[in-house]
């Protein structure tokens, strides 16, 4: 995203950014430095320092590192990184990431692309690059970083480990997003993730006459408090589904989709065969 992230686009993010900006300004003024002097000390221009202190730009981690050292904050400014980590990303991504972190079981059916939690960085970048009208370069980088940040949940070591179930329509494995080499690495990634003890990855073959997922991709998340929610995303709409009847319908539908798909073992063999053909 270059040296600076874009201005926050929602109230929640804006409030956090303004709080951090105010603290940075107070630290600088307490040190008796002008914006120009402070910028020179940390290697940034006066205009950019001003933009950060007005909450118009989100300071990058290295900016906070250098500010902490220059102002003798002894880690207090560095600690602000945690506050800024999430708000760098669009609100719908932050909301989904929070749901995923609260889930003990995540069930996912996809018939358009490889699921976001399974995508390689090259695949992520290629899929966002196909968007029309196209993203600006800084927007593209923001979306790529946000999707990769969500994938941290797959490597979470804290107990209890969440359980993941992915069903990918065969069409998503054959759609050459990014080209041959990108798809080859993506298939290898599926095989890697499929070996995790808390992951079941299945393929729903195109040759299967029955497909309960023709209405589109969706997620079903079972949360720690015993409740469950659904989620789907289409075009400009990202929707969390909480109505018990709708969630029950998705639960039934997902169970049927899993039954129609190849078993996890058969699916891994299917992906290996496709990899050999790529």
Note the topology:
Layout: H1 11-30, H2 35-42, H3 46-53, H4 61-70, H5 81-87, H6 91-102, E1 103-110, H7 121-129, H8 137-150, E2 163-169, H9 170-174, H10 180-194, E3 199-204, E4 218-223, E5 228-234, E6 237-241, H11 244-260, H12 264-277
Parallel strand pairs: 1-2, 2-3
Antiparallel strand pairs: 1-4, 4-5, 5-6
Helix pairs in contact: 1-5, 2-3, 7-8, 10-12
The fraction of residues in strands falls at 5-15%
Number of helical segments? 12
CATH topology of the largest domain: Endonuclease, Chain A
**Total count of strands:** 6
CATH class of the largest domain: Alpha Beta
What is the residue-mean pLDDT, rounded to a whole number?
A: 90
Structure, described:
By secondary structure, the protein is α/β, with parallel strands linked by helices. The chain folds into two domains: about 10-85, Orthogonal Bundle (434 Repressor (Amino-terminal Domain)), CATH 1.10.260.40; about 90-275, 2-Layer Sandwich (Endonuclease, Chain A), CATH 3.30.870. Helices cover about 50% and strands about 15% of the residues. It is built from twelve helices and six strands. The protein has helices at about 10-30, 35-40, 45-55, 60-70, 80-85, 90-100, 120-130, 135-150, 170-175, 180-195, 245-260, 265-275; strands at about 105-110, 165-170, 200-205, 220-225, 230-235, 235-240. The chain has a six-stranded mixed beta sheet, sandwiched between helices. Helix 10 (about 180-195) runs antiparallel to helix 12. The longest helix has 20 residues, at about 10-30. The radius of gyration is 22 Å and the shape is elongated. The mean pLDDT is about 90.
């Amino acid at each position: 995203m270059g040296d600076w992230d874009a201005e926050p686009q929602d109230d929640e993010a804006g409030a956090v950014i303004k709080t951090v900006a105010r603290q940075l300004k107070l630290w600088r003024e307490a040190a008796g430095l002008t914006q120009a002097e402070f910028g020179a000390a940390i290697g940034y221009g006066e205009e950019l320092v001003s933009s950060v202190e007005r909450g118009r730009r989100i300071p990058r981690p290295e900016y906070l590192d250098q500010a902490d050292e220059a102002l003798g904050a002894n880690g207090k400014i560095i600690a602000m990184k945690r506050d800024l980590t999430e708000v760098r990303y669009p609100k719908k991504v932050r909301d989904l990431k929070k749901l995923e972190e609260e889930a003990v079981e995540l069930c996912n059916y996809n018939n358009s692309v490889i699921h976001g939690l399974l995508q390689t960085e090259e695949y992520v970048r290629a899929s966002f690059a196909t968007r029309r009208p196209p993203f600006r370069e800084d927007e593209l980088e923001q979306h790529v970083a946000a999707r990769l940040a969500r994938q941290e949940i797959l490597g979470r070591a804290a107990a209890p480990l969440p359980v993941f179930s992915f069903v990918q329509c065969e069409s998503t494995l054959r759609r050459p997003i990014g080209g041959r080499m990108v798809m080859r690495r993506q298939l290898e990634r599926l095989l890697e993730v499929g070996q995790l003890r808390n992951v079941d990855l299945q393929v729903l073959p195109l040759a299967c006459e029955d497909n309960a997922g023709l209405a589109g991709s969706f997620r079903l998340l079972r949360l720690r408090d015993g409740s469950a929610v659904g989620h789907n995303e289409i075009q400009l709409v990202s929707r969390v589904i909480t109505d018990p009847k709708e969630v029950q319908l998705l639960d039934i539908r997902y169970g049927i989709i899993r039954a129609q798909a190849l078993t996890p073992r058969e699916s891994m063999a299917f992906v290996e065969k496709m990899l050999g053909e790529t």
